[in-house]
Structure formats: C-alpha cells, structure tokens
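Listing S7. Sequence submitted for prediction.
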Amino acid sequence: MKIGIILQSNNPEHIWNTFRFGITSLKANHSVTIFLMSEGSELDTITDTEHFDISNKIVEYKKLQGDLYACGTCLEIRGKKESNVCPVSTMTGLLKMVEDSDKVLVFG
C-alpha cells in the first residue's frame, strides 16, 4: 500500500508518533511519503526531548527509504529557503502524493 502522511504540527509528540507510524508502515513493506506543512515544516528546528527521540526516528525513517518533503511556501513564511532534513516541494508535489496514495493521513 502507498501511504501519504501530512504532518502539520511542530509538537514533539505529534512528530514522534508520525515517524513511528511511518517506520512501522515501512517495516510492513508499505511505501510511505511524509509531507511537512505549516508548523510541520519547522521539523529541522525541533529538538529531542526526554520522551521523544525525534532525530533518531528521522534517521531510521530515512534509512528505511521513506520519502520526506517540506512545503516550500511554508518554509518561506518562516524565513527559510530550504529544509535541512529533506527536499523542498510544492502544492503540486503534495497533490501528486495524494493522487498516488492509497491512504492519506494527517497528523497534527
């Protein structure tokens, strides 16, 4: 199954659970794409906490070949031109992810 996930939160627990689900899905042989929107595009500025090892989850997700993109407009609104964790995409890229996915989930 192709799973598309939209992450639109900068809450560490939401981020952590998004990547945990993505990792679990990849390990079950599904294809997963996470698209960072709104506050989710701030992913590269969110630090690990006592309970949420976000950086390790991102590394594991990428190691399992999960796709990850950030909304370019959302980054620009935050004064950034690129993301340090993934390629920049557009609404056209998000639309393609939705069209290509069997299921789309929104976290946050």
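Caption to Listing S7: primary sequence and predicted structure tokens for the chain studied. Residues 2-107 form a domain with the Hypothetical Protein Ychn; Chain: A, fold (CATH 3.40.1260.10). The chain has one domain: 2-107.
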